[in-house]
Hints:
This protein is α+β, with helices and mostly antiparallel strands. Helices cover 24% and strands 38% of the residues. The longest helix is centred in the N-terminal third of the chain and has 48 residues, at 2-49.
Amino acid sequence: MSSNRAWSTSRSSATEQAGSGRATVVTLPVCLLALLVLAAQLATAEAAAKPPAASKAAAKPPAASKKKGPLLTFVSEARGERMVEVFDLHFACFETRYRHTRAPKSENPTGERIEVIQKRKECSCVRLADWSKIKMPRIRQIDITYPVGERVARVRVTKRDGTSREYPATDLYGGVGIFPPRFVATVEGEHREFPLILPDTPGAAWPEERLVRMLVYRSGYTSASH
Length: 226
């Protein structure tokens, strides 16, 4: 009987081992299936989180467009009032320096020569006499008036917050120098300069077509062909 019990115990152990082996083989495909399902759910969630391609395209401006540039208004008797969009509006001023060099006595009894050097500076701003500046991104509009019978134009700067202040051109940087301050831009393919002070010479007059307004801040986009 003890022999039969030993045999029975041996068969029982073999059955448990075989059963355990079958359970392991069956469990592996179930784990793989669960991983595949989880990966599919993650991919679906990621795709749902991304905006549609059409939405991205709609948010971006067309390739053939760029931000609107300042809109300049000109007034003349011949052409009336007209507006032109520009993309390189700058304020230009001149810094005057004096260089002392030696000179022959025959040229100057003092033995020195004084050279006047004008250094041109441009910025995307309105530069004041104390070297402070109002940057163009802070400006909504600039208006220029030319008082009759006067050499000095007046410049009114209106900021985007609604505050405004008017300056005689002599209060701008370089306004008391040899070369007056000015606005510069490429207008219809031509480089144009708009001085704000007339030279102190007989017959000096403002140009027939005068720059009277610059709408600096403009939202949106415009055609790149302009």
